[in-house]
Amino acid sequence: MSQKQRLELTWIGKEIRPKLEPRILLEDPDKSYHADHRMSENDSFDNRLIFGDNLLALKALESEFAGKIKCVFIDPPYNTGSAFEHYDDGVEHSIWLSLMRDRLEIIRRLLSEDGSLWITIDDHEAHYLKVMCDEIFERHNFISNIIWEKADSPRMDAHFFSTRHDHILVFAKNKKKFVINKISVNEEGLAKHYDKVDDAGRPYYLKPLRAMGGDDSREARPTLFFPLTAPDASDVFPIRKDGSEGRWRWSQERTESDQHLIEWIKSRKGWSPYYRIYGDVQSFRPPETIWNHTDVGSNRTSKAEIKTIFNDIKAFDTPKPEKLIHRIIFLATNPNDIVLDSFAGSGTTGAVAHKMGRRWIMIELGEHCHTHIIPRLKKVIDGEDQGGISKAVNWKGGGGFRYYRLAPSLLEKDKWGK
Ligand SMILES: C[S@@+](CC[C@H](N)C(=O)[O-])C[C@H]1O[C@@H](n2cnc3c(N)ncnc32)[C@H](O)[C@@H]1O
């Protein structure tokens, strides 16, 4: 075979590319909104809300923002076939792939070298989308497929499985430059397993000093098999559950130098040594790939948040919980970085980014840009939105945004509309 081949996803119409007429963005100052005074030095007033189709809007952003966006979060229509109140969620599979591809290619150009893309999606398209992103971002820039527990209880009417999760695909623009923030154990309230405090009030937990799992036998590390003296002066050896000889985690020298960290616990089987792990020594941990609803909220959480914000109008069908977006923005950005969401929905990304001191750009095509996003952001700016993450970040209001729409096409249409 002479033709060069490569592994790729193909679909009907993949080779067809839209001809994009560059458009400019026009601000409508009547719809822009700003706090009437500064709340802090870090208030950001130049956030952008763009009303219009995201393909044209992303293209319009390119001249100013190429290489400048630190994090893109998108929650596109999942293509489930549902007809939601505010948008249609069912297009032919190939059409969906083409429209995502066209947008993701521009998104990649907008990302900074150390930037990352986060996409929520479910089983209808997740695996196709992953392969397509491999092609656009290059496979070695794939970071993770996070499982978000979107449901907090089973659905009794499920035909086969009651689906409990969505996927969050994470890609770096350039994996070598991408740095992920670590989760603060204390900040996330995950100090639960630091269940003890020492005399100085420092939290810690205990871990068995005997090695467990993998190479935990005496044979594997003979020098780590030696007796330790228990409080009753007896010798204790590392013995595995099945009665065979095991090994300690520490060398003999370390058991002497770090003796102050060792605690002895007596059970029916006798004395066992444990060692202390302090919260302030290991207070940051890498994020894990399963995100439970108890930590980041579920669809039920976001529906309740939306009801509180829009008590007088029809709530939005498919919002994401603020804590989920907070986790993503926290991991992917630092204060003042720019976050972009080109499928803005009810505006959760902008609301959360704003409260976290990040700059943001949102694009939304539906009328809910006016009925939901603008009122939501006004409440945030006025400090009236005390739901979602507001209390956790001590949100008091401030900043603002500019509202834009796409300038009309400059191309003259002939009588057939071509
Ligand atoms: C699943 S919702 C996003 C929900 C959002 N994450 C939230 O928390 O409210 C997807 C949104 O993408 C919008 N959308 C779909 N196609 C679009 C397009 N071509 N341009 C701009 N927005 C689009 C829909 O109108 C819908 O509001």
UniProtKB/TrEMBL annotation:
Domain named DNA methylase N-4/N-6: which ranges?
A: 69-371
**EC class of the enzyme, as a word:** transferase
The family annotation for this protein states:
Belongs to the N(4)/N(6)-methyltransferase family.
Biological process annotations from GO: methylation
Q: Which protein are we looking at?
A: Type III restriction-modification system HindVIP enzyme mod
Q: What is its EC number?
A: 2.1.1.72
Q: Gene3D superfamilies under this entry?
A: Vaccinia Virus protein VP39
Enumerate the SUPFAM superfamilies for this protein. Answer: S-adenosyl-L-methionine-dependent methyltransferases
User: Can you provide one Gene Ontology molecular function annotated for this UniProt record?
Assistant: site-specific DNA-methyltransferase (adenine-specific) activity
InterPro entries registered for this protein in UniProt: DNA_methylase_N4/N6, DNA_methylase_N6_adenine_CS, N4/N6-MTase_EcoPI_Mod-like, SAM-dependent_MTases_sf
- Ranges in a coiled coil: none
Q: Which keywords describe this protein according to UniProt? A: Methyltransferase, S-adenosyl-L-methionine, Transferase
